[in-house]
Amino acid sequence: MKIGVLGLQGAIAEHMRMIEMSGEEAVTVKKVEQLAELDGMIIPGGESTTIGKLIKKYGFDVALKDFATKGKPIFGTCAGLIILAKEINGIEEIHLGLMDIKVERNAFGRQRESFETALQIEGVADDFQAVFIRAPYIMEVKGNAKILSTFEGKIVAARQDHFLVTAFHPELTLDPRVHQYFIKMIKEYKD
Ligand code: GLN
């Protein structure tokens, strides 16, 4: 399988490494034409305002919605979660708006700009060491969206059909279990 990592801004190489560690082929995606040959896409963490602008500039807004309509899975981490959300608290402009979740940006406050904690993630692990960096959280899941993990009462991972999001950065540890869960999703949707 070929899995793309949106290569506009953010933690790209780390996701590539996780896909390769899991035995699949990873591709950095900089042009919409590349999407045709891919089975799944990852939208990395970084800065969601910047990624959002670049997505529009290079036509990924239309192309990724089309990719999703074909039933191809998309995984968003941190800023990527914000990019996939239908609602961003206090902000008018949404980006892809594919997932029925309402999110709050930079939600863990200044004292906790970045931290690490062990999480229980449904279907993934009971002890996943999660790295949060100026992370958002999910205020609400709606429709088909399901909670996969919470931390201090805040939703930090969710899935809706072929979409997966985490508020933390699973690519920054050497534990590939979240990526393997995404790869399993891609296989399900491919069959
Ligand atoms: N705070 C960033 C944003 O709102 C996301 C941070 C991250 O991806 N590590 O875009």
TrEMBL record:
| Positions annotated as active site in the UniProt record | C78, H169, E171
> What domain of life does the native source organism fall in?
Bacteria
Q: Which GO terms describe its biological process?
A: L-glutamine catabolic process; pyridoxal phosphate biosynthetic process; pyridoxine metabolic process
**Which residues are listed for L-glutamine binding in this entry?**
G46, E47, S48, R105, I133, R134
Catalytic activity reported: L-glutamine + H2O = L-glutamate + NH4(+); aldehydo-D-ribose 5-phosphate + D-glyceraldehyde 3-phosphate + L-glutamine = pyridoxal 5'-phosphate + L-glutamate + phosphate + 3 H2O + H(+)
What Enzyme Commission number does this protein have?
4.3.3.6, 3.5.1.2
| InterPro entries in alphabetical order | Class_I_gatase-like (IPR029062), PdxT/SNO (IPR002161)
Write out the pathway annotation from the protein's UniProt entry: Cofactor biosynthesis; pyridoxal 5'-phosphate biosynthesis
Keyword ATP-binding assigned to the entry: answer is: no
Q: Does the keyword Hydrolase apply?
A: yes
Its keywords, alphabetically, are: Glutamine amidotransferase, Hydrolase, Lyase, Pyridoxal phosphate, Transferase
Q: Name one GO cellular component term.
A: cytosol
- Among the Pfam families in the record, one is SNO
GO molecular function per UniProt: glutaminase activity; pyridoxal 5'-phosphate synthase (glutamine hydrolysing) activity; transferase activity
PANTHER family linked: PYRIDOXAL 5'-PHOSPHATE SYNTHASE SUBUNIT SNO, PYRIDOXAL 5'-PHOSPHATE SYNTHASE SUBUNIT SNO1-RELATED
Complex and partners = In the presence of PdxS, forms a dodecamer of heterodimers. Only shows activity in the heterodimer.
Q: Which purpose does this protein serve, as stated in its record?
A: Catalyzes the hydrolysis of glutamine to glutamate and ammonia as part of the biosynthesis of pyridoxal 5'-phosphate. The resulting ammonia molecule is channeled to the active site of PdxS.
Family to which this protein belongs: Belongs to the glutaminase PdxT/SNO family.
Protein name stated in the entry: Pyridoxal 5'-phosphate synthase subunit PdxT
